[in-house]
Amino acid sequence: MISVLIVDDEPLIRGLIREHLEHEGYVCNEAGDGTAALSYLESNRADMIIMDIMMPFMDGMTCLREIRRRKIETPVIMLTARGEEYDRIAGLENGSDDYIVKPFSPRELVARVKVVLNRTMPKEENNEKMVFGGLVIDTASHTAHIDGKEVALTPKEFDLLVFLASNRGIAFSREKILQKVWNYDFFGEDRTVDTHVKMLRGHLGDYRDLIFTVWGVGYKFEPGQIG
Amino acid sequence: MISVLIVDDEPLIRGLIREHLEHEGYVCNEAGDGTAALSYLESNRADMIIMDIMMPFMDGMTCLREIRRRKIETPVIMLTARGEEYDRIAGLENGSDDYIVKPFSPRELVARVKVVLNRTMPKEENNEKMVFGGLVIDTASHTAHIDGKEVALTPKEFDLLVFLASNRGIAFSREKILQKVWNYDFFGEDRTVDTHVKMLRGHLGDYRDLIFTVWGVGYKFEPGQIG
DNA sequence: TTTTCTTTTGAAAAAGTTTTAAACAATTGT
DNA sequence: ACAATTGTTTAAAACTTTTTCAAAAGAAAA
C-alpha cells in the first residue's frame, strides 16, 4: 500500500488528484495547508507528497523547507501555476523531487508520481527462478516449465501459482488467497479460487498434487508431494 | 563507471546535484570554485563537468575557457541564473555542451546529463551486434537485417526492438516499455506500444514471433521461438 | 511551403480470461 | 448409514486484454 499526501488549499483540486491516484491504487490523504500537512506528518507516514506552492497560512515552499529540516525524506512533487514565481519554485535548493506546472493532465500527474516513486522506492525484484523438481517457475519471463516444456498458464493461474509456491507449506483460506492474489478490494466468491485451482492443477499435469487441498481450510503448496 | 565533477560555490546545491546523479549511478566529485576545479582536473579524469557560472575567485566562464585551452575535451554543462541571457549564449560559443537555467528540476538535470553523455561517450555496448538466427541487429549502424537483407525500421521501431532484444526473456509491461523506450517525459497511451509492436512484427516477417505477447502483462522478446 | 513519412490516438473487432451458479462428488461427524 | 458440510466440476455469461484499423497530429524532407 502506497500512501500519498495531497496538500492544496482547493478541495476541488485535491479531489481531482485523489481521484486519479486512487484509480491507480494509491491511498490518498489530504491537507488544506502547510500547517495541516506538517501536523499530519508528525504522526503519519507518507510515501509521497504532492504539494501546491500557493497556500494560505503556510505556503508550499516554507512547508517543504520545514519538512526537510525535520529530516523527513519523503519525495515531494510541487504544483506550480504557470508563470507563478517560477524562479524559486523548481529550484533544487528547496529539495523537491519534481514539479508539475498547473494546469496539468491527470496522465502527466500519474506518470510523474510513478517515475519519482520508482526512483525513490526501488523494490527488490524477485527475479529468482523457483524450482520444484521438474517444475520451474520464472517470474521475470512470466513462464512455468514442466520437465523442460513450457506450460501455458493464464495470468491469474500464474499469479496463483507464484503466490502459493512462494509460500510453500503454508495453508491459506480461499478468502486469504483472494485478498493476496486478487486485489484487496475484490469482493468475489470463494468458488472463484476453486475454479482457478482446478485449472492450474489441470495445467500442472503430473505435478497437480503440489497444490494440496487442506480440508476445512483452503489450499497449500507442498513440494514434498512430488512422485 | 562514469565520473561527474560538480563545480559550484554553494555546498547545498552541490549536494543536491550529487544526490540525484548518484542515484542514477554516476560517481560525483565536487569543487567549490574554478581554481579548485582546474587543479582537480590536473590529476583526475572526469567524464562530465557541471559548473555554475557565478562563482568567487574564478567564475565559470573563465574556468571553461581555461579548461578548453588546456585541451581537456570533457563535456561541460553550465548552470546559469535566469536573466543571464548573455552568458548562456557566450557559454555555448565558448565550448560548453549544454546549459541549464537555475532553478531547474532534478528531472531536467538528469535528463540533460544523459543526453550530453550519450552524444559524447560512445558506449561499448552500443557497438554490439545482436544475432538471433537470421535476424541481426546492429546498434552501431542502426540497422537490422533479416537473412542478409536490410529491413527498414522507423526510429521508434528500432529502439523498441533493441530494448526488447537486449532484455530477452524478460516480460515488460507497456508502461515500463513507455518509460524505457520513449522519453522520460512522454505521457502517452499504452496503445502506442501495441501499434509499434504491430508495425515491428510486420517488418520482422518470419521472425515476427520473436516478440511475444504475455497476456495480462505486456511483451517480451523470446529467441527460443524461432521456427 | 508542400509533401512525405512517422508517431499517436481512439474505436471496434477479435481473442482470451475470469466469474458465477448450479449440479455433482467427497469427507466428516453422529 | 445418513445428514451436514466442504470441495470439485462444468459450461455459459460477463468481462478484459490485445489486435487491428483508420484517421489525425506531428516531424522531417523536398
The 3D shape of chain A can be described as elongated
Q: What fraction of residues of chain A sit in β-strands?
A: 15-25%
Task: Give the terminus-to-terminus CA distance of chain A.
Answer: 40 Å
Average residue pLDDT of chain A: 86
Task: Note poorly predicted spans of chain A.
Answer: none
Oligomer designation: homodimer
The secondary-structure element order of chain A is EHEHEHEHEHEEEEHEHHEE
Q: Radius of gyration of chain A from the CA trace? A: 23 Å
Which chain pair has the greatest contact?
A: A-B, 26 and 26 residues
Largest sheet of chain A: 5 strands, parallel
- Secondary-structure-derived class of chain A: alpha/beta
- Order of strands side by side in the largest beta sheet of chain A? 2-1-3-4-5
Give helix % range of chain A. 25-40%
Number of strands of chain A: 12
The number of helical runs of chain A is 8
Would you spell out the secondary-structure blueprint of this structure?
Two copies of one chain form a homodimer.
Chain A (H helix, E strand, L loop, with lengths): L2 E5 L3 H13 L3 E5 L2 H10 L4 E5 L7 H10 L6 E6 L4 H4 L8 E5 L3 H15 L8 E4 L2 E4 L4 E4 L2 E3 L3 H11 L6 E2 H8 L9 H14 L6 E4 L3 E4 L6
Parallel strand pairs in A: 1-2, 1-3, 3-4, 4-5
Antiparallel strand pairs in A: 6-7, 7-8, 8-9, 10-12, 11-12
Helix pairs in contact in A: 1-5, 2-3, 6-8
Chain B binds a DNA duplex (30 and 30 nucleotides) through helix 6 and helix 8.
